[in-house]
Amino acid sequence: MINLKNIQTEVDASFLYAVLAEREKDEVIASIYKEMSDIECSHAIAFLEKNGMSKSQYPQPSFRAKLIKTLGGWFGTDFILGILLNTEKSLASSIQSARSQTRTSASLSDTAHVVILKNIIEKNNVEGTNLAQFEKRHRSVGGNALRAAVLGGNDGLVSNFSLVMGIAGATNGQKEVLLAGMAGLLAGALSMALGEWISVKSSQELYENQMQLEMDELEHNPEGEERELALIYMSKGIDTTKAKQMANEVMKDKNQAHEVLVREELGINSEELKGSAMEAALASFFFFAIGALLPVIPFFFMSGLDATLTSAGLSALGLFLIGAVITLFTGKSMLYSGMRQVIFGLAAAAITYSIGKWIGVSLI
Question: How deeply is 82 buried, as exposed, middle or buried, from its count of CB atoms within 10 A (0-12, 13-18, 19+)?
Fold first, then answer.
């Protein structure tokens, strides 16, 4: 039996690695991506030949892969890198599960791509001039901005859809639903925004305090900090002599040394602290509001059952789109993920509508 999904997965991975190689400025990393693209391509061809198919039947990249490429142009190549890491982890897990069932020995190649990508992301085992390049890489791998947008929109849509359906069931009125829907939108969006602002601000203040303590240690005991940094490099597999040399080079510049020590000892990326808490709050408010507005829109123009059904249909469409976007991270079927989101969202709305209907009748 031909497993077209496995072949397509390899084709898509090869395509996305090629995209990364094309966009990567560091020649060493670009060459790694190019090599991995070639390897994935060879895997796909091997699958084809194993199933009696020719190279001429090599499939084109899927719509999902092309969409990820487009989004990578908006959110940065780290977005693509994060999704590839998730894919490689999933493949490695499947291989290990199959080996467990067949009782075959594990191979280094089973998890090789996961290790390579982690080393690129986390800047492990980096020496010489490439160290500075790796230290400047952006760390928001996996499309955190898009994830936040999707989750914020989903929260707004599901919560306000349920609220609107509950009020619609209880009153059958247009003004009442509009009032409740807009109140729910504003209350939820403001709550999300405030929560995000507090979260970002608190993290920044905590990290800033820890960074100041690290600077104090650096000023009062630079020899001890240099020895600790060398040990960290050694723990990553770097040769002892080279590790001490790297630590010594870093310590020549106090500001650079502070940045490296903060990242290596505390796990803090100072670049992430430059993000604005207000920007995060506004983004949360905006995406939550967009999702929360969908179920309310019909009630601006209609009332009664027509508005309720239209609201449910519009919300179901929004839920499906959110589920489809989630597949960019999970690799699951868009139809499956979208319909699952629709079913859960409609179920929640149906429950609140029924409760609203029961409360409305009991108050008459």
Answer: buried
- The answer to whether the beta carbons of residues 245 and 234 sit under 8 Å apart is no
Nearest to 265 by CA among 213, 223, 204: 213
Q: Which domains does the chain have, with CATH numbers?
A: 4-135 (1.20.1260), 144-196+278-363 (no CATH), 204-274 (no CATH)
Q: What is the DSSP letter of 332?
A: -
Token pair of 347 as six digits: 């179920």
CA–CA gap between residue 364 and residue 352 (Å, rounded)? 18
- The angle formed by the CA atoms of residues 128, 132 and 136, to the nearest 5 degrees, is 150
Residue pair 285/154 in contact by the 8 Å Cβ criterion: no
Sign of CA dihedral 261, 266, 269, 273: negative
What's phi and psi for 221, nearest 5 deg?
-145, 65
Note the pLDDT tens digit of each residue in 95-120. Answer: 566 556 656 554 444 456 666 776 66
pLDDT at 17: 87
Q: How far apart are CA 43 and CA 110, in angstroms?
A: 13
Tallying the residues shown for the chain, one arrives at: 364
Residue 61 main-chain phi, psi, to 5 deg? -55, 145
CB 311 within 8 A of CB 296: yes
Q: Which residues have C-beta within 8 Å of that of residue 65, sequence separation ≥ 6?
A: 11, 12, 15, 16
pLDDT tens, 35-93? 888 888 887 888 787 777 777 778 888 888 888 888 888 877 777 877 777 777 766 66
